[in-house]
Amino acid sequence: MAGLRLGILISGRGSNLRALIDSCNAPGYPAEIALVIANRSGAEGLKYAAAAGIPTQVIDHTAFPDRAGFDNALDRALRQARVQLVCLAGFMRLLTPGFVEAWRDALVNIHPSLLPSFRGLHSHRQALAAGVRITGCTVHYVRAETDTGPIVAQAAVPVLAGDDEDSLALRVLGAEHRCYPEAVRLIAQGRVRLERERVFIDEPASPAAILINPPPTPADL
Ligand code: GRF
After folding, report:
1. With bands split at pLDDT 50, 70 and 90, how would you rate the model's confidence at 221?
2. 112 CB under 6 A from ligand 1?
3. Ordered structural domains, the chain, with CATH
4. In whole angstroms, how far apart are CA 199 and each of 25, 119, 191, 209?
5. What is the mean pLDDT of the chain?
6. Best mutation site among 8, 9, 11, 15 for ligand 1, i.e. most ligand atoms within 8 A of its Cβ?
7. Is 111 among the residues known to form the active site?
8. Which of 111, 124, 140, 177 is catalytic?
9. Do residues 193 and 202 touch, judged by C-beta distance below 8 A?
């Protein structure tokens, strides 16, 4: 339980946070969670963090007159905890360009689509409306424009005939829980190289580094 110090930002359920907590507890995982911050005191994910003995903070965005003030408070808390990589995990606040720039290449997000398709809200609704047969999730470095930035890892899942937004979201979520810890592992191992806004993974001989695309389990189907 030592390694790259993660700061996880959440707003709600926290199932991706849970997946990261489980990974960080696994022997040999190269990262540890230094701090979990929620912008809502009711964020369910806070409970998992507390139960795992991880320091938590609530920084309520409504207590700040503007986005910059809120982001400054986030920045202070993360630096105080000596965070090295910030992971957005269902964090529902837009970050200011100043914050994104200050944490450039040390700030990642998970988005429930295969970017660059279906950015923004309601990505599953967008996927169903477009009639795609495959969707998935993406872990990417964060840039000022929402849901853009160099892609670290993606996982694909099928869209099935009877799917609605909920069933599709659930299947994608299963992939998210495998994809996010794998992406963080690659970063923590120092194997992720950014060159001209593209990610290159060192040691491409490892299948995990080429494509993170876990086969669907029976539960996914
Ligand atoms: C996930 O689908 C994530 O991709 C998106 O918000 C959702 C958060 O879920 N950014 P959870 O809070 O991790 O359960």
Report:
1. low
2. yes
3. 1-103 (3.40.50.170), 111-221 (3.40.50.170)
4. 27, 19, 10, 11
5. 93
6. 15
7. yes
8. 111
9. yes
